[in-house]
Specification:
globular
């Protein structure tokens, strides 16, 4: 590619925050599961893989919680904050600087995972710097915007701050090799960051999207219910941190009932008339499904029932809800902001169906007697389906971010 063409591509790539940030997310969709897939190959086959410098659970958890979805989240929020609040756009220098630190952290993180925890800690520090630069850019838009109602942004700013704390805690864990710090970072990342953030974005956007395309639609957006569900998520964070398993039902049951009610009132059934809308509703449905599994687990613990669900509830949330919502939102933003028709084509629909299949397989892997299918690990099959579906998505939509 000649220099003028290269410069033009760079200009296109840096033309909007969602282009750079969501490209980073598309890259991580593939790299994080390639990494985990290699680890699973080492566990379930004769394939030899290099040892990690941190336990697999804590390494995999950090990459999923803090390095994958973070790019998509900043790409989305840097695009929507100015529109939601009628404020100025995020300056190019701000989002380029944030992206540069975050993407530059990845080689340190991956190399450090195999070579030395100190190198990985340096990667966490670089990621945190990029995160704080992005948060500062959003804060400037928030502070200067004229909108009187900033309730959603107040909550979102809180979650982004919690995520920064989670990264810092994980970095400390790497230095001290502390299981307690690793575990706290995972809890902060899930219940103080990803779950409440995506719940809040869904509450803000899904009724709006539905109202745009469904005739006679009536918006239902009770903000007190959102506040209750966010409080329940943070209560779960606190209880899990304290090891108070006997009380988790107090947080899980409201999250189950509230999210199930919202799913129905937002028009889950009607959404199937518009496939691009339906994928959002299906993704949100995984939140009450995951919480129902957590509630079953809570009751089994309290009543000493033999119901071993293992990590099934966690992966219903992580793959079904978090990944599903992220991909659905990213697809919509990418199509809309690249001048393409807001329509879910058959190719993307099949890829999205594969994400749901990966969630089902990963849940199945935790159930007694279903961990192996035809001599293959169901866990490994779930990772393979993830890659087979999200690699084509990343290639297709990742290219759009470089395209005028």
């Amino acid at each position: 590619m000649n220099p003028p063409e290269t410069n033009r591509r760079r200009e296109v790539f840096a033309a909007a925050p969602h282009r750079m940030m969501m490209f980073g997310g598309a890259l991580q969709l593939v790299l994080t599961l390639l990494l985990w897939g290699l680890e699973l190959l080492g566990r379930y086959t004769a394939f030899s893989t290099p040892a990690w410098q941190v336990p697999g659970l804590w390494g995999h958890g950090f990459f999923m919680l803090y390095t994958l979805f973070s790019f998509f989240i900043f790409g989305f929020l840097m695009t929507t904050y100015p529109r939601w609040m009628g404020g100025g756009e995020v300056p190019r220098s701000d989002y380029v600087r944030s992206f540069s630190w975050m993407i530059g952290a990845l080689p340190l993180l991956y190399l450090g995972l195999f070579l030395h925890r100190g190198l990985m800690a340096a990667g966490v520090a670089a990621l945190l710097i990029g995160w704080l630069l992005g948060l500062r850019a959003l804060w400037r838009v928030y502070r200067e915007a004229p909108a009187a109602d900033k309730r959603y942004e107040n909550l979102l700013n809180l979650y982004l701050a919690v995520a920064a704390i989670g990264m810092l805690v994980y970095g400390v864990g790497l230095v001290l090799h502390s299981t307690m710090a690793y575990r706290l970072a995972m809890t902060l990342g899930l219940w103080g960051f990803l779950v409440p953030l995506l719940l809040t974005v869904a509450h803000r956007m899904m009724p709006f999207f539905s109202d745009c395309v469904l005739e006679g639609y009536r918006r239902v957006q009770p903000f007190p219910l959102l506040q209750l569900l966010v409080a329940a998520a943070f209560l779960r964070l606190l209880l899990a941190t304290l090891g108070a398993d006997a009380w988790l039902l107090l947080a899980d049951l409201p999250l189950l009932l509230g999210s199930a009610w919202l799913s129905l009132r937002w028009g889950l059934v009607r959404s199937f008339a518009v496939p691009l809308l339906a994928v959002l509703h299906v993704a949100f449905l995984w939140l009450p499904i995951g919480m129902a599994l957590f509630v079953i687990q809570d009751l089994a613990w309290l009543l000493s029932w033999p119901v071993p669900l293992g990590q099934a509830p966690l992966h219903a949330l992580g793959i079904g809800f978090v990944t599903g919502m992220t991909i659905a939102m990213a697809t919509r933003v990418t199509l809309g902001h690249s001048g393409r028709e807001l329509r879910l084509d058959a190719f993307t629909a099949w890829l999205y169906a594969g994400v749901n299949l990966a969630a089902l397989l990963r849940i199945t892997a935790e159930l007694p007697g279903l961990g192996m299918v035809a001599g293959l690990s169901t866990n490994l099959l779930a990772a393979a389906v993830w890659l087979l579906c999200l690699l084509p998505w990343a290639l297709r939509y990742g290219w759009i971010y470089w395209t005028p």
